[in-house]
């Protein structure tokens, strides 16, 4: 509402007295004012304007009232909005884009198979059984090893992998033998091609022959072959860790130096100078100057002198620290596919003030490698 007159303040006071609270009151001049009034309070507002000889210059409906009036002038607008909502709802219940992510050799076959299964633009989402589609494609399309169908929004995406055909024959050339890749005690020997050179209980060093690349063709004749087999052995991995029986910590001596400065942005004026200690803790505090809305205040820096002190570390704590380091170092050397059989730790004092842990892991693993 926009009103003009001399009694605008009286109008506001009378409205407040009647329990009417105008919103967004704005002065547009000495005798012109705009405000927002609820539609249910218009009769009281008009009566007061007549009583106080105030002229109403403009009435502009807002919010729901304005919307309803606009809808009355455009009767087709609600119908069109409803139709749009229905169309959008129908659009989102169907698949409008089908994408195939697969090797080029399978793309055409998969597209044809999807059409035969009814998976095409315009298909209803509720009619698509994704698991059945995946099973049908794996069973019906030659060369498909795996496929996965997913619907996101209005897009159906099919990912497929091509099966790799196995070779007709296994080529074992050129001839060669298998050797130990580490020190171990042999546990089991399984020879698929070649001749075993070790047996259970033998101790081998890295590089020793395990399976020779020869086979007995007859009593007097041998033939070179590619040695194939598995040799399992017991292997030991160890790691070392150390921890001091005492540690150095920094403690405050009690000496304190305080520096104060008035700071404004990047500028400062020192009011109490101080020199920091060689080794110290530093604490900062900021005290703004009251009553001012500028970044102006007093910056206080307190320096606490520190000194070194030797503190005895409990033996069990030092052992735990050294053991953890040794264990981690041993595990780094141990292969992931090894089977742990046993593990143990040993401790010793070195250099007078340091404890050393030796952690040993006994595992069983394959030890052969090609020569």
Strands of the biggest beta sheet: in what spatial order? Answer: 13-11-17-23-22
CATH architecture call of the domain at 94-162: Roll
Question: Tally the helices: what do you get?
Answer: 7
What is the level 1 CATH name of the domain at 94-162?
A: Alpha Beta
Let me know the average pLDDT.
85
Helix % is 10-25%
- The number of strands is 24
Task: Characterize the quaternary organization of these chains.
Answer: single chain
The major beta sheet can be summarized as: 5 strands, antiparallel
Decide which structural class fits the backbone.
alpha+beta
Report the principal-axis shape: flat
Per-chain topology:
Layout: E1 2-4, H1 8-17, E2 23-27, E3 32-36, H2 42-51, E4 55-58, H3 63-73, H4 76-92, E5 94-95, E6 97-101, H5 104-116, E7 123-124, H6 130-140, E8 144-152, E9 155-162, E10 178-180, E11 184-193, E12 195-196, E13 203-204, E14 209-212, E15 214-216, E16 222-224, E17 228-244, E18 246-264, E19 267-272, E20 280-288, E21 296-312, H7 315-333, E22 339-350, E23 354-366, E24 368-370
Parallel strand pairs: 6-9
Antiparallel strand pairs: 1-3, 1-4, 2-3, 5-7, 8-9, 10-14, 10-24, 11-13, 11-17, 12-14, 15-16, 17-23, 18-19, 18-21, 20-21, 22-23
Structure report:
- With 371 residues, the protein is an alpha+beta fold.
- Among the domains are: 2-68; 94-162, Ubiquitin-like (UB roll) (Roll); 178-230, no CATH class; 246-312, no CATH class.
- The chain contains seven helices and 24 strands.
- β20 and β21 (296-312) form a beta hairpin.
- The mean pLDDT is 85.
């Amino acid at each position: 509402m926009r009103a003009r007159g001399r009694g605008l303040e009286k109008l506001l006071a009378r409205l407040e007295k009647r329990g009417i609270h105008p919103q967004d009151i704005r002065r547009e001049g000495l005798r012109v004012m705009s405000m927002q009034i609820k539609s249910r309070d218009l009769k009281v507002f008009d009566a007061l304007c007549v009583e106080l000889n105030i002229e109403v210059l403009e009435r502009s409906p807002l919010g729901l009232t304005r919307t309803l009036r606009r809808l009355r002038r455009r009767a087709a607008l609600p119908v069109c909005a409803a139709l749009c909502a229905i169309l959008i709802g129908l659009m989102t219940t169907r698949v409008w884009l089908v994408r195939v992510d697969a090797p080029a050799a399978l793309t055409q076959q998969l597209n044809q198979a999807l059409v035969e299964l009814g998976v095409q633009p315009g298909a209803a989402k509720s009619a698509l059984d994704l698991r059945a589609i995946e099973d049908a494609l794996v069973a019906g399309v030659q060369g498909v090893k795996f496929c996965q169908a997913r619907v996101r929004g209005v897009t159906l995406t099919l990912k497929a992998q091509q099966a790799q055909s196995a070779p007709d024959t296994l080529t074992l050339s050129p001839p060669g033998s298998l050797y130990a890749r580490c020190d171990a005690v042999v546990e089991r020997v399984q020879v698929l091609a070649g001749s075993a050179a070790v047996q259970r209980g033998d101790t081998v060093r890295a590089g020793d022959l395990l399976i020779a690349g020869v086979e007995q063709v007859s009593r007097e004749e041998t033939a070179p072959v590619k040695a194939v087999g598995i040799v399992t052995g017991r292997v030991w991995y160890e790691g070392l860790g150390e921890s001091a029986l005492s540690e150095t910590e920094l403690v405050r001596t009690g000496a304190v130096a305080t520096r104060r400065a008035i700071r404004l942005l990047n500028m400062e004026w020192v009011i109490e100078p101080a020199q920091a200690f060689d080794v110290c803790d530093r604490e900062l505090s900021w005290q703004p100057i009251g009553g001012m809305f500028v970044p102006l205040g007093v910056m206080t820096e307190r320096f606490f002198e520190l000194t070194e002190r030797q503190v005895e570390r409990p033996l069990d704590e030092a052992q735990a620290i050294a053991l953890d380091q040794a264990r981690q170092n041993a595990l780094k050397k141990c292969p992931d596919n090894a089977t742990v059989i046993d593990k143990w730790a040993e401790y010793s004092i070195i250099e007078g003030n340091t404890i050393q842990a030796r952690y040993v892991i006994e595992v069983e693993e394959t030890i052969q490698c090609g020569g």
